[in-house]
Amino acid sequence: MTAFTEQIDAEAEYLLERGKPMPSKNHSKLESRLSFLMTRDYEKKYDTFVELSLELSTGKATPDLCFFTPESSDWLEDEIQVKNAPLGVIEIVSPKQSTQDLVDKLDIYFGAGVLSCWIVIPTFKMINIFHAKHDYKTFMNGELLDEKLGIRLNLEEVFK
Q1: CA separation for the pair 109, 132 (Å, rounded)
Q2: DSSP characters for the chain?
Q3: Rounded to whole angstroms, how far apart are CA atoms 52 and 144?
Q4: Per-residue pLDDT of the chain (160 residues; tens, 9 = 90+)
Q5: Going by DSSP bridges, is the β-strand pair 126-132/116-121 parallel, antiparallel, or unpaired?
Q6: 95-100 contacts: CB < 8 A, separation 24 or more?
């Protein structure tokens, strides 16, 4: 098998397994940075999860990151698919993904009770924070502010 065919097979397998295109190096770096910053600055306010499978009343999704009210973990009992809606989710656009794919997920998230959804566009160092499908703010410089979740992040730290 050629390297090209192996790459297509890997991408197809990832898409089937997770329901979204395979991420890239920049995608992974942003996911790690956002997870670190949220844990560093908001650990007492939110539990931050990476790639958590959600089975919500409105559909299935696996956001890049999501936030829940903190709770103690029961390490003897685990959940494969979480049925409770998170307070917030972050979706990072992958190189072979359209922003429309992520906008379409807003119905799943907001219909289930998610308060805030961030769509991160790495190419433009841009984060759109949605509080409803047609209610959003765009952040490209300075400080990001999610008023519903009370989150402030320095965009220079996010995109460094």
Answers
A1: 9
A2: --HHHHHHHHHHHHHHHHSSPPP-HHHHHHHHHHHHHHHHHHTTT-EEEES--EEETTEEE--SEEEE------TTS--SSB-SPPSEEEEE--TT--HHHHHHHHHHHHHHT--EEEEEEGGGTEEEEEEETTEEEEE-SSEEEETTTTEEEEHHHHT-
A3: 24
A4: 565 555 445 444 544 455 555 668 999 999 999 999 999 999 999 999 999 999 999 999 999 999 999 999 999 999 999 999 999 999 999 988 888 888 899 999 999 999 999 999 999 999 999 999 999 999 999 999 999 999 999 999 999 9
A5: antiparallel
A6: 95/21, 95/24, 95/27, 96/11, 96/21, 96/22, 97/20, 97/21
What does 79-109 look like in DSSP terms, one character per residue?
-SSB-SPPSEEEEE--TT--HHHHHHHHHHH
Report the predicted TM-score, pTM, of the whole model to 2 decimal places.
0.85
CA–centroid distance for 126 within its chain? 14
Chain position carrying tokens 């989150």 = 151
In single-letter form, the type of residue at position 58 comes to T
